């Protein structure tokens, strides 16, 4: 489909998407095993029976290795008398690139699904597949969605990534918007057969909110577009960055209230931000607290979400099958303990807070749509609404909506807002002077907490910061450093591509004659074609790239470089 320069009408895009939807797929191995016509039917059955469902996330280097891992986990849990209901794929970012262009991209961690592999997704084991990352919201979103639906994958995301993620080097936002509407319409066409769109709120603009009232308000906006304008079913996922169990409960209840307390969710993601590499005791404590809360919530007010136990090695690398099995066995023991005392929390207070948050969110949505209408956006056109939301930030939207939250809701501060504030205060306290130093700051993916903190701290230390967006191409980072006469580049990278990015940065620096220092942070590993990625630090050091594991060390390293 040709890429258009002017946004096509939403009605036309919806019609095209619905027309392209495949025939309902035959039941997957999971649905056959459980005698269900769709995952939605199965989820509703389990929800109404008080059964806690479980989700695992997996993504080794290739689909063949990932397929084997799913089967291994299923078999190991079955031997212990347990089952896992669904698996989500941690895909390579290149899946967001159209299939015929994918071979031109840098390989990252996670599998790429080839044309002949889609049909195997639902047959890897009696575990229902879920496709979230790098599907909807990217240039290949419509293509991927049609293939996934035909393969029996009925829960497809990630709507949240549409507004917050991009490919390396960027993409045509008009084309991406059109493909997103078509994809959502294809899912809507199969709603009666159990298809639903998925959105992880932690991956979208909602996670930038100053409190959970506007966070859930963003969810209400997504619901409006997907369900009211396009006619689909939207399942919200949350939890990656929600540390506080009470906050998890409030979001759970609020999202359920938005749906009239008749939710069919995808999964509640585990708290990943409290995990630390190599700190097994800490990670076990974080997993235990999260699972106790999420399991208790499913017993108190079941929503059809599967619970996601986070492997203890999550902060270090892509977990192996045995590590996934380990944490799932732990989860089943925790469930047994929670069932002994389900009233672990002050449910009455938390449900009241959830209702207040949902009420605020609905008014936030209504005011946001009114603001868009004032800007000339046709708020009955899903394509126009999506594009307008993509072009604004959460901070801008909160400012324009200007809706005072009740004190109890305003105090519900998301992790990113509170953590950036604390990190800024911590870094400023001991920061050495960097007067006149020019630094290019770039994060080539959306996990931008450290970038946001450094963008506030470095100028107070006297540095001049050139801040680049996550869609900046690698050679563009070097070009900016050369044009701005920068002494250093600070760059954050995504899981599985650190060495490849380092090589391209160094090559571009040589070409442009830039001789400054490169500091790299993030998950510093590299996909080498094996099941698990390798440590990229030795290779980066050989290139002359300085690896930084802790943001606290970076400013000292920048200061030290001026004396060398």
Characterise the protein shown here.
Helix 16 (415-430) packs parallel to helix 17 (449-460). 48% of the residues lie in helices and 10% in strands. It has a 5-stranded parallel β-sheet with strand order 3-2-1-8-7. A 5-stranded parallel β-sheet has the order 10-9-11-12-15, with helices on both faces. A 3-stranded parallel β-sheet has the order 4-5-6. Strand 13 and strand 14 (534-535) form a beta hairpin. It folds into 2 domains: 10-350, Methylmalonyl-CoA mutase (TIM Barrel, Alpha-Beta Barrel); 416-561, Rossmann fold, CATH 3.40.50. By secondary structure, the protein is of the alpha/beta class. The longest helix is centred in the middle third of the chain and has 28 residues, at 347-374. The radius of gyration is 23 Å and the shape is globular. One of its GO terms (molecular function) is metal ion binding. Residues 434-564 form the B12-binding domain. Residues 1-25 are annotated as: Disordered.
Summarize the structure.
The protein has 564 residues and is of the alpha/beta class. 48% of the residues lie in helices and 10% in strands.
